[in-house]
Amino acid sequence: MTGTDDAAGGDGGSADGDALAADAEAFRRYLRAKRSVDDRALDRRLLGILRERLADRAARDGRLRVFEVGTGVGTMVARLIDWEVLPPGETRYVAVDRDPDALAGLGPFLREWADDRKAPASVTEAAGGSEAAGESEAAGESEAAGGSEAAGESEAAGGSEAAGGSERAGGSEADALVVETDARTVRVEPVAADGVAYAAEHAGESDALIGMALLDVLGLDRLDQLLDALAPDGTYYFPITFDGGTRFRPAHPDDRAIERLYHRHMDEKPGGNSRAGGAALARLREADGSTLLGVAGSDWIARPADGEAGYPGDEAFFLRHILDTVEAAVGEVIAGGGETRALSAADLDAWLEIRRRQVDSGELVYLTHQLDLIGRVDDA
Fold first, then answer.
1. Would the CA dihedral through 346, 23, 163, 209 be positive or negative?
2. Of 77, 75, 56, 74, which Cα lies nearest the Cα of 66?
3. Which stretches of the chain drop beneath a pLDDT of 50?
4. What was the pLDDT predicted at 325?
5. Cβ–Cβ < 8 Å for 190, 72
6. Which pLDDT score is estimated for 143?
7. How high is the pLDDT of residue 341?
């Protein structure tokens, strides 16, 4: 239960992605707020593998093509530049998300990031528009895309980062943005579409495939189709994949019942899987035509800042959205007659009241268990 139904595309968590997306501005703020939580969680060893493979690919081919599913507002783009995971030189970055409202925040987020960045950076509209936008009719027709920016993120973040509608981002060819730093030029092409359908339309075109908080909402039966987007020896990277653990502290007697119903809500959604991390690991280890290169834990830990009042950055807002997600998801199960003997609507309301007070007072700690996975498809 990472808090996005992504987040995020999961993106990797809202009651479900639809509930957050109903308030597009709040959902975009949620995607921004969880950036620092993701930053702490991501495994640096696996990022090092990704960095090396992208550098080798760019050196060999003289170009780099990245395809992200569940881009949301673009926090991964900024992260890969800041952490120097993208190699120096030029990168074409196709940013796909089923939610056009989330993608509408891509330009504003990247411009704000560039303004706040210590090292020089600029974000401008690309001359000649987007090569990716609107190329795929199939991508616009499919309704089942996948996840995000993740497990609760799947329930809340994955929601943006992979859920939503299936329309072209902005509907025009002027959507592409060029992000320039002293050593890197990244052409970001937002496309509002189903990630799997887009992958089918552009099979074999990408050097790297990224899906954060994606697999717990994608449906693992669609994973092979998604991997078809990669060129031979291309790299896949699926960080923040929810794997069945949600904890709130201080402990409360109703925590386990709420966790169980929340995970049940995830599992009952099309493509949802509250234990996607372990299931994806097993599937990728045994897959023909690809090789798993690494797996590591990437647990979310949101807690009060050391020596300060409250939470870092905008993480209090992040936590409130997580609680809104729990309220909607668990409330839906209870309203449907699910396990009301274990937990009543009044029990849920009382639990939420306590947890929200704990956010306000800077006491609540939130933890989820997730996995990062990286691998490659085999040479043809």
1. negative
2. 77
3. 1, 3-17, 20-21, 133-174
4. 94
5. no
6. 37
7. 73
Residue 356 is predicted with a pLDDT of 98
Residue found under tokens 């299936």: 166
Write phi, then psi, for 332 (nearest 5 degrees): -65, -40
The predicted pLDDT at position 119 comes to: 92
What pLDDT, on the 0 to 100 scale, is given for residue 208? 98
Q: Which fold has domain 17-246+270-309+365-377?
A: Rossmann fold (3.40.50)
| CA 245/CA 274 separation, integer angstroms | 8
Question: CA-CA distance, 193 to 198, in Å (whole number)?
Answer: 7
Say how many C-beta atoms besides its own lie within 10 A of residue 312's C-beta. 16
107-149 pLDDT tens trace: 999 999 999 999 999 999 987 655 654 444 444 443 333 333 3
The pLDDT assigned to 22 comes to 56
